C-alpha cells in the first residue's frame, strides 16, 4: 500500500494539496483511532472506577509518555495537553508570564514569528508595563545574529523563538539561540508548530524551558496540542483555569491543586484528540513515513528549480535550510489573484501574510503565495502546480 493511499482525502477527486503548513491531511489510522475510541472505548480518564475507564486512563497516559520520548523529554510529566500551539503559548504567557514578568522586564521575540508567538508576548508586556523587542530579520528571513546579540546584552527575562518559519520555511538555529538567551538568564520558549513534522526535535538537547506544538500539523487531529515545560521552571507556573480535574482537595475555605502538570489541565480533556495524536505519532515514526521523508529534500529542490525557470517569480526565504515551504512573489501580480486562479485548477496553496505580518513588513511585501509540502506530495503534484502557475500567469498578463 502506498503512503498516499493511506490518506482518504486524496480519494475524493482531483486536488493537488500544497498547504500542509496550514494543516496536514490525516491518515486512515488516525481517523480509525478516533472512531474506535467513540465506538468502543468512550469513557473518561482519571475518574471512574470501572475497568474500561482505567484501561483508557492507562492508554491516555501512555500517549503522554510517547509524546515525551518523541521530543526527547525524559519525563512524561513535563508534557501538558493543550488545544494547539496558540493555546500552548498563551498558557505559557499566563501560567508563567503573569507571575514572572514585571514592570521594566524585557521580552524578546524574532521578527519572523507567527502571530501566535508574537501577540501573546506583546500583550503580556503591555499588561505588565514591560518592554517588548523584536529581533531583526535579514532579507532571506534569517535572524540578524548581531541584533540578537545586542538584545541579549539587555538581559531579557523571556526569549520566544520560532523553530521553523511557517511563512518561509527557514529552519532557525534554536539550540544556539537558546544557549545564548540562557547565558543572559532568560527563560526560553520555542514554537515548534512547523518543526514537529519535519525536523528531529530534542527539547533537552535544545535546552529550552518551553516547547509548543499542534497535533494537526503532524498528521493528527485539530484541537490537540502540547506544551512541554522543563523541570527547571515547572515550579514557577501557577494555575490559569479552575475547576474539576486540576484539584486535589476542595473545601469552603480553600482549594489544593494537583501536582504539575495536572493543575494546568482543567476539566475533561480532549481524549479523542489525544488518542488521535497517539496514532499520528505512530504514523510519523513508521518506516513508510521515514522512507517518504528521505525524498522530501529532492522534491523541494525540484520545486525550487522549476520556479527559478519562471523569470518573474521571486522565491523568498533561505532555500538551503528549509522544511519544504516555498514562498514566492511574482512581479506586478497580487498573491491572492494567483491563488484564485490556482484554485480554479484544483491547486490548493495559501496566499497572504501567513499570520506573520511583522515579517511581511520587514520584507517590504504584503503577502506571498505559499506552497508547502507534506509526506504525500510527489513530483506529479509539482508538475501539475507548475503547469497551472504558468497558465495563471499568462492569464494575468493577457
Ligand atoms: N506557530 C507557527 C509557526 C505556526 O505555523 C502556527 C500555525 N500556522 C501556529 C504557531 C499556530 O498553530 P495553531 O493554529 O495550531 O494553534
Automatic annotation (TrEMBL):
Keyword annotations from UniProtKB, A to Z: Pyridoxal phosphate, Transferase
Class of this enzyme: transferase
Coiled coil: none
Matching InterPro entries: Aminotrans_V_dom (IPR000192), Aminotrans_V_PyrdxlP_BS (IPR020578), Cys_dSase_SufS (IPR010970), Cysteine_dSase (IPR016454), PyrdxlP-dep_Trfase (IPR015424), PyrdxlP-dep_Trfase_major (IPR015421), PyrdxlP-dep_Trfase_small (IPR015422)
This enzyme's EC code(s): 2.8.1.7
Domain Aminotransferase class V: 16-385
Pfam families per UniProt: Aminotran_5
Names of the cofactor(s): pyridoxal 5'-phosphate
Catalytic activity reported: (sulfur carrier)-H + L-cysteine = (sulfur carrier)-SH + L-alanine
Keyword presence, Transferase: yes
Organism domain of life: Bacteria
Family to which the UniProt record says this protein belongs: Belongs to the class-V pyridoxal-phosphate-dependent aminotransferase family. Csd subfamily.
Function of the molecule: Catalyzes the removal of elemental sulfur and selenium atoms from L-cysteine, L-cystine, L-selenocysteine, and L-selenocystine to produce L-alanine.
Protein name (database record): Cysteine desulfurase
Organism of this sequence: Psychrosphaera algicola
